[in-house]
Amino acid sequence: MSNDLLTLLKQHRSIRQFTDQPLTAAETNTLVTAAQHAATSTFAQQYSIISITDPAIKHTLGNITGHHWLEKSGHYFILVADQHRNLQIAQKAHADTAILRSFDKFMASTFDVAIAAEAIVTAGESMGLGSTIMGSILNDTRQIIKLLDLPELTFPLLGLAIGHPAEQPELKPRMPQPLMHFSNQYALSADFDSQLTAYDEQTADYYAHRNSHLKKITFSQHIVQELQRDPKLRAELIQVIKQQGFNVD
Ligand SMILES: Cc1cc2nc3c(=O)[nH]c(=O)nc-3n(C[C@H](O)[C@H](O)[C@H](O)COP(=O)(O)O)c2cc1C
């Protein structure tokens, strides 16, 4: 089965180098519109998008994420979990607002943000743009909350750098489906080891031959390496989420 959208989805790769050409207001508006039309849990539209145009803020975000290349993107978005707007609506109606603080609602905002981010990525790719979703803004959410003046019941979840691509990285091979798609019950396939070995060989080949940042590593080694990051990094996330008014205990 093939159509233009399926082809586009299978051509996805994150882009981290951009030309100097900024996005136009019409382009950013189109991307935000695409995000708005994505599914949203209980139709609560419980997220907001902040366009970061101030170079000083972008520079600070570069420091926080360690990704100074974001400063050269054609546009930078921050996607924020947002129950604050619905708090205003509920307070006007003198409703009980406790549920807006619940873990369930925090998760609903998280889903909304993730789905909106993917809509922006895909819409952008259909327009010839490239992007990278950035969870690394979570490295210092306290600072981002101050910087963006985020009120209670909001939380910065994802950054998104987007622009005209100045690179064309190879596609990263995804794992064989028997490792991640099951029927009715969770069941790692009987030939898990051989499937994984084949995927490790495929990923090692990808890392050894891609056109930049060559590495000698397999997917399994990559997963283990990910676990070796400083455990103090983001250790305070739950405290900051609570400080923003969410009851996530
Ligand atoms: C939730 C999320 C957070 C991510 N955070 C970062 C990030 O902080 N920095 C980065 O360079 N890439 C980030 N990425 C991009 C992934 O590294 C990338 O999608 C993955 O390596 C697969 O590569 P591909 O998108 O080119 O296929 C993130 C992706 C997702 C979905």
From TrEMBL:
Entry's SUPFAM superfamilies?
A: FMN-dependent nitroreductase-like
What InterPro entries does this protein's entry cite?
Flavin_OxRdtase_Frp (IPR016446), Nitroreductase (IPR029479), Nitroreductase-like (IPR000415)
- The segment(s) forming the Nitroreductase domain are 9-164
Identify the keywords attached in UniProt to this record, alphabetized.
Flavoprotein, FMN, NADP, Oxidoreductase
Q: Which GO terms describe its molecular function?
A: oxidoreductase activity
Protein family (similarity comment): Belongs to the flavin oxidoreductase frp family.
- This one is known as Nitroreductase
Give the originating organism: Secundilactobacillus pentosiphilus
Whichever gene encodes this chain, its name is nfnB_2
